[in-house]
């Protein structure tokens, strides 16, 4: 049996990792806002420096019943998620293929976090190699929500699970030379950094400062090739506080800022959604009897029925229409997972055109993950309508034994809606 008592003990000593990694400041900004004295004190701490890999966040845990539960960046991976995209099917199937006696060696309630590579170029960075079984173990989260990122623990577990080890660049205290060179970098004005790294490798420069013995990055054979960023975790001597920061290639950072400013909302999505909302207001939900018992299955069943009716009546509107999804969305792993759809009519409609697949995705996504903020043609009124409908869909798909509501007798809310003759309670 794996001895994981050290894992449990250590996990209780390390503070919670920030929930939103996107909010982590650059080390350059920390230097500008907090000053030299703070940086000197920071550099005296124990530090874990790692390469951030441009890939998908994926986690799993073994619950108290011994079942495997899977997570993405923003929560549990549901059957709805797995229907919308095939992206997570490969890592899920791999973890499920690990022998039970191996999984049973892992502590219950601990989340094992990875970066998952669906190919060598998962997003905007191309790598020379794929990790072992397409997964790199990056961290472990204990039941209290605290992060274990000690490589003396992570490395053996990586071997146990037969995945790649964490991409650590440096682990320990910084020496005088490392501190001096990092400070020199932080003191350099941004415009000069941009000018310098237009013709010189940022990756090679920074990694050479931190660990000159490294001749290649986690998945690249050439240290001069670009990487996503470099992450720092400074841990106080008493292990009660941690400070997170990152370094990003200033040239790439400048390009990213430009791209963000130039983005425009894809109003076609809002137009389709608006049309679907009006369709549901007129037709209501009562006409759709549900047979499934599980709530997620009932949701998928209902979406299929709505989709079939909508395309039958208004599908002609989209003949010749093309949506412009992000380039990566065209990859096979981001396509609909129709194996989880039992409605044969839905599958038949989906097979007819790409626009039908996109409409189905829009429909399912809108009512499973309603948007909160207006943008472009996605007005606050439309968002409110979607939220209202989402609540009704949620009530209808609840598998509460003996419940009425959409199954038979109307809920109190529906009764009031009928009394006020709201448009979306009108039936065919």
CATH topology type of the largest domain: D-amino Acid Aminotransferase, Chain A, domain 1
Report strand %. Answer: 5-15%
> What summary fits the major beta sheet?
6 strands, antiparallel
- The topology string of helices and strands comes to HHHEEEEHHHEEEHEHHHEEHHHHHHH
How many E strands? 10
* End-to-end gap: 63 Å
Class based on secondary structure composition and strand pairing: alpha+beta
Mean pLDDT: 83
How many distinct helices? 17
The first-level CATH class of the largest domain is given as Alpha Beta
- Radius of gyration (CA) equals 25 Å
Count of folded domains = 2
Tell me the CATH architecture of the largest domain. Answer: 2-Layer Sandwich
The CATH homologous superfamily of the largest domain: DNA ligase/mRNA capping enzyme
Order the strands across the largest sheet as they lie in space: 4-3-2-5-6-7
Tell me briefly what this model is:
By secondary structure, the protein is an alpha+beta fold.
């Amino acid at each position: 049996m794996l001895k994981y008592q050290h894992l449990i003990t250590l996990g209780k000593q390390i503070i919670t990792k920030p929930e939103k990694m996107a909010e982590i400041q650059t080390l350059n900004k920390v230097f500008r806002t907090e000053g030299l004295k703070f940086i000197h004190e920071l550099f005296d701490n124990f530090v874990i420096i790692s390469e951030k890999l441009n890939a998908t966040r994926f986690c799993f845990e073994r619950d108290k019943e011994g079942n495997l539960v899977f997570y993405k960046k923003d929560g549990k991976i549901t059957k709805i998620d797995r229907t919308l995209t095939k992206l997570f099917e490969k890592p899920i199937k791999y973890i499920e293929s690990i022998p039970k006696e191996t999984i049973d060696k892992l502590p219950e309630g601990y989340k094992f976090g990875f970066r998952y590579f669906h190919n060598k170029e998962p997003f905007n960075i191309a790598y020379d190699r794929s990790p072992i079984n397409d997964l790199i173990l990056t961290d472990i989260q204990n039941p209290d929500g605290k992060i274990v990122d000690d490589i003396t623990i992570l490395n053996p577990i990586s071997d146990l699970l037969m995945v790649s080890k964490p991409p650590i660049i440096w682990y320990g205290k910084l020496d005088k030379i490392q501190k001096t060179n990092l400070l020199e970098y932080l003191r350099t004005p941004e415009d000069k950094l941009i000018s310098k790294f237009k013709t010189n490798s940022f990756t090679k420069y920074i990694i050479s400062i931190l660990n000159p013995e490294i001749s290649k990055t986690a998945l690249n054979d050439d240290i001069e090739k670009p990487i996503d960023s470099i992450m720092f975790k400074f841990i106080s001597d008493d292990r009660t506080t941690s400070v997170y920061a990152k370094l990003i290639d200033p040239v790439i950072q400048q390009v990213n800022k430009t791209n963000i400013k130039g983005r425009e909302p894809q109003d076609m999505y809002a137009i389709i959604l608006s049309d679907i909302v009006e369709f549901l207001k007129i037709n209501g939900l009562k006409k759709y009897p549900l047979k499934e018992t599980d709530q997620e299955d009932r949701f998928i069943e209902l979406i299929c029925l709505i989709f079939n009716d909508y395309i039958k009546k208004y599908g002609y509107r989209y003949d010749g229409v093309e949506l412009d999804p992000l380039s990566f969305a065209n990859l096979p792993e981001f396509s609909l997972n129709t194996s989880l759809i039992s409605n044969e009519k839905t599958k038949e409609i989906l097979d007819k055109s790409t626009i039908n697949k996109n409409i189905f995705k829009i429909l399912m996504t809108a009512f499973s993950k309603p948007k909160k903020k207006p943008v472009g043609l996605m007005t606050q009124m439309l968002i409110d309508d979607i939220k209202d409908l989402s609540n009704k869909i949620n009530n209808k798909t609840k598998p509460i034994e003996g419940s009425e509501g959409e199954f038979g007798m109307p809920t109190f809310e529906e009764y009031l809606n009928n009394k006020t003759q709201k448009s979306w309670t009108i039936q065919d």
